TrEMBL record, chain B:
Residues 207-244 are annotated as: Disordered. It comes from the Eukaryota. InterPro entries: SPC3. The lineage of its organism: Eukaryota, Fungi, Dikarya, Ascomycota, Saccharomycotina. This is Signal peptidase complex subunit 3. It comes from Scheffersomyces stipitis (strain ATCC 58785 / CBS 6054 / NBRC 10063 / NRRL Y-11545) (Yeast). One of its GO terms (cellular component) is signal peptidase complex. Pfam families: SPC22 (PF04573). PANTHER family: MICROSOMAL SIGNAL PEPTIDASE 23 KD SUBUNIT SPC22/23, SIGNAL PEPTIDASE COMPLEX SUBUNIT 3.
Automatic annotation (TrEMBL), chain C:
It comes from the Eukaryota. Component of the signal peptidase complex (SPC) which catalyzes the cleavage of N-terminal signal sequences from nascent proteins as they are translocated into the lumen of the endoplasmic reticulum. Enhances the enzymatic activity of SPC and facilitates the interactions between different components of the translocation site. GO terms for cellular component: signal peptidase complex. InterPro entries: Spc2/SPCS2. It is a multi-pass membrane protein. Signal peptide: none annotated. It holds the Pfam family SPC25. Belongs to the SPCS2 family. This is Signal peptidase complex subunit 2. Keywords: Endoplasmic reticulum, Membrane, Transmembrane, Transmembrane helix.
Amino acid sequence: MNIRQQLTQFLSLAYVFTSAFVIWKSLGIITNSHSPIVVVLSGSMEPAFQRGDILFLWNRDQEAKVGDIVVYEIQGRNIPIVHRVLREHHNSDKQLLLTKGDNNAVDDLGLYAKKQKYLNQKTDLVGSVKAYLPKLGYVTILITENVYFKYGMLGLMCISTLLTNE
Amino acid sequence: MFNLVTRGQAVANQALTSSVFIIVTIVAITLARLYQDNVWSIDTTSIGAISPSASIKYSFNYGSTNRQPKENAKIQFDLDADLTSLFNWNTKQVFVYVTAEYPGKSDGSSNRVTFWDKIIVSKEDAKLHLVNQRSKYSVWDVEKSFRGREAVVRLEWNIQPHIGPLIFGETEATATFNFAEIEKKKKKKEQKVEKVEPVVEEIKEEVKEEVKEEPIPEPVQQAQQAQEVEEEPVQEPLDEVPIQ
Amino acid sequence: MSSNKKVNLNSVADLRQNTDDNLPAALEGLGYEESFKLVDTKIALGLSTVAIAGGLFAIDKKYDFKESYWITVAALAVYFVISLVMLVVNNQNKNVKYIGYSSKGKKITIAAWTTKYDPIYHVKVTFNDDPKSTTTAELPFAKFFDLTGYFSRNAFSKLLSSHIEKIEKKDI
């Protein structure tokens, strides 16, 4: 086959992936968050958030407010936690936060690193939740937890691009 | 439209565009409704009869570092609120919370804490009438003590929609109170700390934001100085310039 | 050149794609030599965007968000600039399927498109990039696809050349 034809076909397939990835990275830069869209994985914020809900984050707020729902990661652990700000203390340099899940009986002190008493607003937060879509994220839970589903979806995407000539 | 793939793609495209349109419309309608109901200036609330109390705690779960005394505060209050205007068809739940805002040590520093919160799921439960309600949480400051500072109490709310942006606000009612002070006879309890074995905890590199305690009465200071030698340099209180 | 295969007569897209693929052969028969400059430019631009995306992906894997922030911004900026260039190039060469030069050095540009449900192959022929020497013709697919869906090169070449010669005669 003609190499130009092959390259052109390859490019139209690659376009799907590159544009999706570029959109994701751009969102991250715009929101200043390394994960601007997250899927709720636990039930610690019920009844507000259920497993599978999609949250849209924003990380360019100067300060967090009490009552804000934030996503944070403890240093050294890669698990993002979605909880509400219970208390905040700030001066002109930094802000310290204490969080708690709505569905938990106690605050998050036990979740922080050893001897850590507060979260640092600038360094520990992934972002604060600004908007929410119910349940649609369940697809990603399926993709991460169910291997067949993941490859099935990828396969479908490739096939559909190759078959279209419009 | 002659094969499954093309039909599938066309349907998917249409579904995507329509759902975006629908969501935008829903959000716009919700916001318009809320504006119409004047939810950002709810004045049918009142907070009063605030009676604060204070206690000393020594456990890490109550804010204490190295078993040093830490002042904890609680309040009792009366609350009347009519939050029914926050409920419309797009409201999944309303989270209400009573906050107290008080100043810090330096200029530009401030603190806000939650004493009590509640999740309201339906319009029928949106009328609150609380008498002598005890606070849910035992609250401690970044400093060792509240020093009897004055705090402004507010009732704040957060609407969690079925779809769309989270909406926050506070009601018009405010009240003030001064944090209760611990009576001086508590000094006896503080002296006991001297005999407690210094608890040497593992110092990891990621230790963050250790808050140095306020200057404390003499007898305890010596015990603490012995401990401090073994510890990593403790960071200054929030309201002074942080070391790192 | 694609070997003759059966084309779905119910799909305008398929008919058009197949005809596009046969354009180079047909024009070769008319004495033109294909110029790949446009195609190569598009491919080069496309590959560079893929390269940038690939690089971004590698950086994303290796460094964390804060460290790689400004490099990511720079890479994204370059990506969008290249995409913009591609957009402009595509716009200026809308639907261009073939560019070639005759033995005398005359440049022919052929743009071809279809509307969604009409089985008509619209062809726009331009000589030497001169907007005045342009003809647009409507060639119904029925004229060069037989009943079973096979492309007839002879029928197509004849049809195409008659239109091209019309302008050629005008030019000369």
